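Example 3.2
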Amino acid sequence: MNIQTTTVSATEIEADVVAIGIWKDEPLDGPAKEIDDAAGGVLSRMIELEEVSAERFSTSVLHGPAGVKAPLVLVVGLGSKDDVDETFSYRVGGVVSKTVGSKQREHVATYINVDVVPDAICGLINGCVGQDLYMEKKKLNEIQSVSLGFEVSTEDLTRGKVLGESIRLTRRLVNMPANDLHPESFADMIVQTGKESGFEVEVWDQERLERERCGALLAVGKASTRESRLVIMRHNGGTESDAPVAYVGKGVTFDSGGLSLKPTAGMLDMKCDMAGAATVVGTMKALAELNVKQNVIGVVGLVENMIAGNSFRLGDVLTSRSGKTIEVHNTDAEGRLVLADALDVAIENGADRLIDLATLTGACLVALGTEIVGVMSNDDDWSDQLISAANTSGESVWSLPMHKYFSEQLKSTIADVKNVGTGRWGGTITAAKFLEEFVQDVPWVHLDIAGPSFADKPAAWIDGGASGCMVRSLVQLAESL
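Structure, written as tokens:
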């Protein structure tokens, strides 16, 4: 998508569609008033007749209004000025793009100015791109060119484009089916992204994983015909002496549940079980292209959890890379096994702070719903920094308690730890307490993104499927350090 600014007015610009915004209980002003005046008050009359609404993210189209060169004017309701939050700019951009993208458009001009322009650009880039990757006739069509009819700094324009394309990459990876995106092909895509964006990539193949004693990760992928991979990405934006921050992602490219087999309905969307890894890849792309002045490493463990005669079994005892032994009580609690080894790799690479991301537990959806990321940590200061970055980025997160007694549920009679807690209760927290066993004393935050990373239904500003959540927050965090 080509995005540029324009000084041509909303009435004079030659575009397929011109987008304007109207506020609830406010007189028309700016480009909306300009179009209304040129068209002989048609917009005002449509508002009075309640044919056009100012309710937030409602949309209406004026066809061929007099005095306007564009054949269509998209009117977006902006709601109340007193009720604008950090999600607003991103969603406004998405609403414009998604609405216009219902048909093929070559050039769209938007005159809806917002407080956070890079977020609006992110929304514009992602709103018109959906999960219909393999459909001959797309439900959403990418806009070729967008003109912004308000002042935008070069820095904001660049930032919006980079973040928008990085989120889009994450969404595309998550939306891809497991027959195309598997550990080997995923690793190859990361290598290509590193070449294009400017970060270093190191790939550990099956043989290297065995040499590196990644016993937990390898057990999960053992039954698949696809070999497992671990990928290390390095963005060297700081000084050589600075310890890196590590972003670690779960990359289960398909999760059958293993011998603890999922039911059909629970398995259908398990192509998205690598959303944590995809988020790390999108973040590393953005960090490199924005030249963020911080050393960051990304570590992703890529596996398929399948079933065969050599599947890892309930009751098996695995030896993780750190040397800690794990008794398996559920093969569908596999993501934490992958992360156990990936976190150890990050620590060995010198990371002095850790963030991991994973579609880890259905229990997190029960606790927090589909819009909120669960946050668990061993360090309040580090957790607070992540939460602050998420709040700035308009992404919803919420802390869950990490009381010591949750660790009691993970005690095994024959190994150092078992991979699930006792019973159903507090499953998100016991999963985090399991991961805590593998981070030593390094400040660490665990993000359970099972809810927000993949949506069953579309919203006004984005299609269903992958959301690309937390890319902006992780970039914001790295920039704030």
